[in-house]
């Protein structure tokens, strides 16, 4: 019975806390660079190499944020993706 009462109270508290958070940006914009890779992709290794070089750039986390995702639905066209 206590759990039934506790869960709505917890949800209400978390919702109220989330509503208090305001994120604003100034005139400086930060770019998001996204790279999606897949096993068997011929252009992915050069793109990953280029993205990894960005870790030495002075604008990292200020001017741009790099993200890399491995897409694991690519389980066809002649190769087997073990992550699919």
Could you give a short account of the major beta sheet? 2 strands, parallel
Work out the radius of gyration: 21 Å
Cα separation of the termini = 42 Å
Estimate the mean pLDDT confidence: 78
Count of structural domains = 1
Strand order of the largest sheet: 1-2
Contiguous low-pLDDT stretches (5 residues minimum) are none
Total DSSP E strands: 2
Q: How many helical elements?
A: 2
Which of globular, elongated, flat, extended, rod-shaped describes the shape? Answer: flat
SS-based class: alpha+beta
SSE string, helices as H and strands as E: HEHE
Q: Hey, roughly how much beta strand do the residues contain?
A: 15-25%
* Helix fraction bin: 25-40%
Sum up the structure in keywords.
33% helix; 84 residues; flat; alpha+beta
Task: Describe what this molecule looks like in 3D.
β1 (31-37), α2 (44-53) and β2 (64-70) form a beta-alpha-beta unit. The protein has a two-stranded parallel sheet. The chain is flat and about 55 Å long. The model has no long low-confidence stretch (mean pLDDT 78). The two termini are 42 Å apart. The protein has one domain. The protein contains 2 helices and 2 strands; from the N terminus they run αβαβ. The chain has helices at 2-19, 44-53, and strands spanning 31-37, 64-70. It has 84 residues and is an alpha+beta fold.
């Amino acid at each position: 019975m206590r759990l039934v009462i506790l869960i709505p109270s917890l949800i209400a508290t978390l919702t109220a806390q989330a509503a208090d958070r305001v994120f604003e940006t100034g005139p400086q914009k930060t770019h998001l660079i996204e790279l999606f890779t897949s096993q068997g992709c011929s252009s992915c290794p050069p793109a990953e190499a280029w993205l990894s070089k960005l870790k030495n750039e002075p604008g990292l986390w200020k001017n741009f944020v790099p993200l890399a995702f491995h897409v694991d639905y690519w389980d066809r066209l002649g190769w087997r993706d073990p992550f699919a």
